[in-house]
Amino acid sequence: MTSPVPRRNTGQSTIASVAAEAEVSVPTVSKVLNGRPGVSDATRARVEAVMRERDFRRSARGPAPARVPLVDLAFHELSSTWSIEIIRGVEAAAADAGASVVVSEFSGKRRPQQSWMDAVLARRPVGVILVLSALEEQQQHQLESRSIPFVVLDTAGELPPGVATVGSNNWNGGLVATRHLVELGHRRIAVISGPEDLLCSRARIDGFRSALGAAGLAVHADLIVHGTFEIEAGYEHARRMLVRQDRPTAIFAGSDLQAIGVLRAAAELGLAVPRDLSVVGYDNLPVTQWFSPALTTVNQPLKAMASAATTMLMQLARGEKPALSRIDLATDLVVRESTAPPLSGSI
Questions:
Q1: Where is 152: in which H helix or E strand?
Q2: Are 18 and 47 in contact (CB under 8 A)?
Q3: Is 108 in contact with 76 (CB distance < 8 Å)?
Q4: Confidence (pLDDT) at 252
Q5: In sequence order, what are the residues at sequence separation of 6 or more whose Cβ sits closer than 8 angstroms to the Cβ of residue 77?
Q6: 82 and 257 in contact (C-beta within 8 Å)?
Q7: CB of 316 within 8 A of CB of 151?
Q8: In order of start, what are the domains of the chain with their CATH numbers?
Q9: What is the spatial distance between Cα 257 and Cα 272, in angstroms, rounded to a whole number?
Q10: Could you report the per-residue pLDDT of 174-223, keeping only the tens digit for each?
């Protein structure tokens, strides 16, 4: 078995030395560094491998290619007002720092394609914010070798040590939502969460389970379901649950969008909210206070999360070390009109 070649962390690699070792021209290395076309995949991979082996780092000093510094904000998917709240938070914080924002998405994927990476390298932003997505190890090195820092906002899963992240306390969100329903007197409580492979989805369900356990209530596995965070998932799961003879008297939805679907399903089945069914959402999107009934929901401070991620990114771009490399902001419950004690005899 061949042992891996250790990186030569000399800190003295130059474009010329990389070109010599990769047996290519200096302009070819420059094209690879800046994500420009005209380089074959094999040559590009060879240059990247040499830069990685030599721990090449482009100097962060020097004039930026754009007149206005850019922040690259990348979503796994742009599909809802949830995304808009994050964009607003990033844009406000970036504007305070004199930067503009470029927004892109990965078409539902959790990892970017190389074409996106090439575009980022060509733009040379001051940094990248990744929302519910992450980088492969090789992609992480591509940014690091160009001195482009990145921050992960609302991480989809566990990240390597040292990666800057900003999120919220999803476990507490699930806990306070479920505790509220329990204190109202509900005993058959269902939860519709997001994708099972997302850390935030699992954390909210863990909080849900903890609240039931603390109250001495059984956890019914058939009342815990996963879906997307979209309206359709809330609607479809709620329809199936609410036609059962032993239907739940309350549903905790993993997003406000799912809660909209739950409200629609309940209305179609002739169930009044909150008289026949209590509903709790998650995110506290601005529109939720205008629902009829106004939605009880967990406040996830999306704008504050986005602002914190942008501030952290600008610190990294200036070569500063943030006081914390991981930030989890608090979540709390906003009680409105969609929750009430269950009808007598329905418990």
A1: strand 150-153
A2: yes
A3: yes
A4: 98
A5: 83, 105, 106, 107, 108, 132
A6: yes
A7: yes
A8: 70-168+303-330 (3.40.50.2300), 170-300 (3.40.50.2300)
A9: 19
A10: 999 999 999 999 999 999 999 998 999 999 999 999 999 999 999 999 99
pTM over 0.90: no
Q: How far is CA 177 from CA 81, 91, 211, 255, in A?
A: 21, 30, 9, 12
User: How far is 218 from 312, CA to CA, in rounded Å?
Assistant: 42
Residue, of 47 and 258, whose pLDDT is higher = 258
Q: Can the peptide bond before residue 274 be classed as cis, meaning omega within 30 degrees of 0?
A: yes
SS3 of 118-143? HHHHHHCCCEEEEECCCCCHHHHHHH
Task: Provide the mean pLDDT of the chain.
Answer: 87
Residues 6+ positions from 256 with CB-CB distance below 8 Å: 82, 281, 282, 283, 284, 285, 287, 288, 295, 297
Peptide bond into 6 cis (omega under 30): no
DSSP 237-303: HHHHHHTSTT--SEEEESSHHHHHHHHHHHHHTT--TTTT-EEEEEE--GGGGGSSSPPEEEE--HH
By the 8 A CB rule, do 72 and 139 touch? no
